[in-house]
Design a protein that fits this description.
mainly alpha, 71% helix
Length: 112
């Protein structure tokens, strides 16, 4: 029974990852935000740890794109744990905002 649960979790993670890659590629080189960044903060806040990994991957890509577009180097020396705690706190206090707004605020807060 445990093996079946593990397989289901693994398939779910793979499907989420594929969906993320698909939707991210659709928005590549466009100025409009698409994909998981448009979900409400409350969705991020209430998601499981496994799902938050997908959100944090999106956030990392968004921050990287901002680094490239602005020829800057945002968010140096901030740990993954501190990042996720800060984003969870922001989303807890702003549940109706979009996840991208949380990441933009994170960039503003921790920019060098």
């Amino acid at each position: 029974m445990e093996k079946i649960k593990t397989k289901i979790k693994t398939k779910t993670k793979i499907n989420l990852f594929i969906a993320l890659i698909f939707y991210t590629n659709l928005s590549y080189a466009q100025f409009n935000i698409k994909g998981i960044g448009l979900s409400d903060c409350v969705t991020f806040y209430n998601s499981s740890i496994d799902e938050k990994i997908i959100y944090m991957s999106w956030a990392s890509g968004f921050i990287s794109s901002q680094n490239i577009l602005n020829r800057s180097d945002y968010i140096k020396d901030i740990s993954y744990d501190r990042s996720i705690i800060w984003l969870e706190y922001y989303c807890y206090n702003h549940p109706k905002k979009k996840f991208k707004d949380a990441v933009v605020s994170f960039i503003d807060k921790f920019s060098n």
